[in-house]
Amino acid sequence: MVFQGSSSKCGNSHSSVSTASLIFPLASQNFSKTCSALKQSTLSVTNRLSSIHHDSLFVQQVADHYKLPLIANERCGSWYIPLERKAASAYFKSTDGHQGQSSFSTRRLNLQVLEIVGHHKGCIIVDSTRRGKSMPDALSKTIPIWCAVMNRLLFGDQGQAIRLHTPTNVVAPSEQSQIESRLDEFVSDAKRLQLDTSALRQTLSGPLRPLFVTPDHPFPDLPSQAHAPYHPIVCLTSSHRVHDAENSKSDYIQGAGDDSESWSQGLTPSLFWRHKDTLMSATDTELPSLIASFIALEQVDIQSRPIAPTLITPTATIFVGSHGSIDFDTWDAVVSCSCTNQTENQNTSTGGRPKVLHFPIPQGKLGSRALRAHLHLLAPFLQPILDSTTSEDAAKCVKILFTCPTGTDLAIGTALVALCLFFNDDGSRSKYLAPRDEIEEAQTGNDSLGVRTNIDKLLIRRRLAWISTAKPDARPSRETLQAVNTCLIGR
Q1: What is the pLDDT of residues 132-141, one digit of tens each?
Q2: pTM above threshold 0.85
Q3: Cα 444 from chain centroid?
Q4: For residues 99-116, b (16+ Cβ closer than 10 Å) or e, as one string?
Q5: Ramachandran angles phi, psi of 485, nearest 5°
Q6: Which residues partner with 73 through β-bridges?
Q7: What gap in Å lies between CA 367 and CA 373, rounded to an integer?
């Protein structure tokens, strides 16, 4: 075969060998289908659950070794921790540790971790990653940044306490230096939130120190708790690293719990651990119906066990919860976000004043975007209810519940608007703080309007810090927060 011709017919053209020229088209097509089928078989739900269970045994081994509580870094970490061994959840995002994009999140403060660390003298935070990496950025960088910021915020300049500790086999010295150069900026951002640092400091006897554990490296030693110069935050990667994941001959899947929305068919970590033996003994064809039946049973269980709403301190007025927590006799007012109106038969209070404000919006991004069109209704609904009492006695305070199907997104956005409009920094009632569009219409600066005009992004962040401190599982989406910003400051 001639690959390069020089005759007059070929001129200076070149011929190259392609897969299609060596394999008959039908054989090539069959080969591609076979590879695709093999990949789908390897990534099956049964293989994922088997891999998750395999990794969970290692997680429990580490917990037994260090005798520290397990915290799941959501949304992946909960897959690897049995329900009875899970102490709490944390929300450290890998995107806050991506190279060149490192940041300290004022939306996800994770202050609940400090309480657990103070009580147990340390903790283990569990996460995993796919894509052939040895550990997720959340563990290698986001958590170390958080530890360094908290140390500087709570302990000041105490030598080793202010250092940034990252895994040297993952984070290059140049990237370490880039992150360190921004730590003072991150600490300043945290200080602007006006957190109660004295109370947080009392929960800890020393600074935080991240340590890193993977299945491929030995466990680092910890100092004895009696003389420990720091509280260990063990960043535990649950999965073995697979260097060539797509071509691996093993059925093992690295980071099998990651991106569960794409494969779980609605199965959740809690359902998996409640029904682990049944699920793992089922075939691929049996799993869909099994999972559907478990989901249906859980929905009935949730409706029969409503979760108590969360009070957003320092107020004594604002509560956030899911729809299952609505008991109308308990509340002076309810603000509900959902497609269906579960409150239509409860629309007036004793004085004939509307008691319920319903925003007919769906969950997810569509609901967050639709929220913009409804938030302007919030202030005129709430103001007469809040003005109905002037008592500072918490027992006599108006109690207002904000709900959505999950209690973690749309309800957070509506409650955040109320906190910005009606409450001072100490949680007491403020003079109504009008959104920008109302101020512009009524000529800013006219004292007779009865409004204050200092709503800005910093105020919104401070009120959001109240929510994330009181309710660590609050996860307002970016779209929900954009709706809040648009309502309050026009951008």
Answers
A1: 789 999 999 9
A2: no
A3: 38
A4: eeebbbbbbbbbbbbbeb
A5: -60, -45
A6: 90
A7: 10
